[in-house]
Amino acid sequence: MHRASYEALVAERLEREALELAAKRRDPLSPYAEAPAPFARRRFMLGSLAALGVGALPAPRASAQALGAAVHDVPSDPTKTPGYPLADESYGTRSQFETAVRRRFKTSTPLSSWTMTPLEDGMGVVTPSGLHFERSHAGTAVIDPAQHRLYVHGMVDEPRKYTMNDLKRFPSLSRLMFLECSGNGLTEWAKPTMATVQFTHGLTSTSEWTGVPLSAILNEAGLRPGAKWLLAEGGDAAMMTRSIPLAKAMQDCFLAYGQNGEALRPEQGYPLRLMVPGYEGNINIKWLRRIEVSDAPFMTREETSKYTDLFPDGKAVQFSLAMEAKSVITSPSGAMTLDGPGFREITGLAWSGRGAIRRVDVSTDGGRTWRRAALQAPVLPICHTRFRFPWQWDGREAVLQSRCVDDTGYVQPTLGQLIAVRGLNGPLGSVYHLNAIQSWHVTTDGKVTNVHDY
Ligand SMILES: Nc1nc2c(c(=O)[nH]1)N[C@H]1C(S)=C(S)[C@@H](COP(=O)(O)O)O[C@H]1N2
Ligand SMILES: [Mo]
Predict the structure, then answer these.
(1) 313 or 354: whose pLDDT is higher?
(2) Fewer C-beta neighbours within 10 Å, C or N terminus of the chain?
């Protein structure tokens, strides 16, 4: 192609994309929508004052300090101290200066316990595999992938047995997706209990999962008429079993062997786990070894005595599987201290088991007024979505909250609204599926604490 006409094509395409982006920005519900007017105005003000050479607005403190440090603290001649050499073979580790770790929720036995993701240290939406939360009922099973088999039987035309290699021969799929234990926040119903967002919300993480659509395996086995449910069974000492509606299984469930570009971590169910997009963590069976097709749910321990929701009238609801929309501010969050008034970004995560996040609003006055936060791409269904909100802290007391809406139109409830429906009469005061708005109180000296404000 002639160079000039090629350049004209590129120019035309850039113009079209700019027009499309402008249209998206005008749509108030689009993740590309313009920042709220007050912020846009302030930015304009900063710009015009700077242009006049007027330093009327103080620069953000943190960055001013960083700038000074950059000039004075770097060795004058870094070429005198070479770095450490690259290894001939290695599996990388993070910087020795990085210290974020999962922390175990203190239970009587480490074999049936939880570890929580340090959400306060997260960036973007992917959780590093080494920080993915863990929930295991009988320890981390050790399974040799060469010995592992997946059995598919029950109401099928032809029972099947798959090796890991068999499964990897199917067309694969990869999907960024969150998992959340329905026990996330179980300590927080009646009163604020945990100090940090790691312990109030850290039973959720996002990975890119790779595997095989469950429908491909079920179609190969052939479903018999009348089949409506299936049982998934884990190969760990807990032999975790859950019933899954067949319609969901055929719609978007998959068998994952990959996590963030490599094999599943042992704690996430190596070598094979079931992924049930948007449903409570418990049903995403790890160390998956058996699928049995049936015409009714199996009524296992985990869907009768556990993982049911007791309501105020004494009735318990079974199979409340989808995780409702939820959001939380991860910074600033509990146990942090703000280093003085001025600008800082409020950021956090929002997610919904029913689809994509459509919008997030942030309040700095305990829910009296709300302003729209920016959603950072990618905004994917059933995936953590990062939101950001520019905040000029005036040094006064504040209560920070976030509230999300998903693309079904569902609005994240306040704790008061949720308790009005759910009550507090579960075994520990209601236990599962807490998705209420979280409040962080900021004192005048910048201390951030977990509070209930509703
Ligand atoms: N086989 C088996 N699968 C299991 C569990 C288990 O203990 N055994 N725990 C379940 C629970 S309660 C949750 S919340 C998720 C946690 O997944 P993760 O440990 O990969 O974060 O796995 C689920 N799948
Ligand atoms: Mo869980």
Answers:
(1) 354
(2) N
